[in-house]
Design a protein that fits this description.
Layout: H1 2-7, H2 13-36, H3 38-45, E1 49-53, E2 56-57, H4 59-64, H5 69-78, E3 87-92, E4 98-102, H6 111-120, E5 125-129, E6 132-133, H7 135-140, H8 145-154, E7 163-168, E8 173-178, E9 186-189
Antiparallel strand pairs: 1-2, 1-3, 3-4, 5-6, 5-7, 7-8, 8-9
Helix pairs in contact: 2-3
């Protein structure tokens, strides 16, 4: 608005300033109303959205906040959460950040755990993303398409398109999350 007022000669400066002041007042009033009224707060500020619950990725939550699985994984990595099987829950907060709750066995990490983790797990590779096989990720882990298909068959998953996301790390820990939210994610050392 300021740029439009500054660079457009057809708009008188006083009208432009009045528009900016009016917009600022509306923003201030909506913030005050959100603080005072619970109902208006829900309308104006929305509410946190569940993205992961009980270790399961909720695709509906991702759609609601317009987040792709790639974006979710990138945001989790930024927070230091590389392994999906370690996450109990995650929420998109109203300010756009993602809060993560790790499973109880991964809450407290000491220096010895860090040494073991770095040596044994390595960086996880996502080998299926949104129903599509990522062959380069499999190659990076010394696996192939046949291994991935056998892994799915082992767990009763007939079609790769039913898999929302699947990861494997260098120790062989596999995490498979299907599109069916009633299906419990598979977490399995190979």
């Amino acid at each position: 608005m300021v740029a439009t007022v500054t660079f457009t000669q057809e708009i008188p400066i006083l009208i432009g300033i009045a528009g900016i002041v009016l917009f600022s007042l509306l923003a201030l009033i909506s913030d005050i109303l959100a603080i005072k009224s619970f109902r208006l707060r829900k309308v104006l500020n929305s509410e946190p959205t569940i993205l992961i619950k009980n270790g399961k990725i909720y695709e509906e939550g991702l759609k609601k906040v317009r987040l792709t699985v790639d974006d979710l994984l990138a945001n989790l990595r930024k927070k230091g959460d590389f392994y999906l099987h370690e996450i109990e829950g995650a929420m998109m907060e109203t300010d756009g950040t993602i809060s993560v709750l790790k499973k109880p066995q991964y809450h407290f990490v000491n220096q010895e755990d860090m040494k073991v983790t770095k040596l044994s797990k390595g960086m996880p590779q996502t080998f299926i993303l949104d129903g599509k096989l990522l062959p380069y990720s499999l190659e990076a882990m010394g696996k192939d398409k046949e291994w991935a298909e056998n892994m799915l068959k082992e767990h009763g998953i007939k079609n790769m398109r039913d898999v929302f996301v699947a990861q494997v790390d260098s120790s062989g820990m596999v995490y498979i999350d299907t599109r069916d939210d009633s299906f419990t994610p598979i977490i399995k050392p190979t």
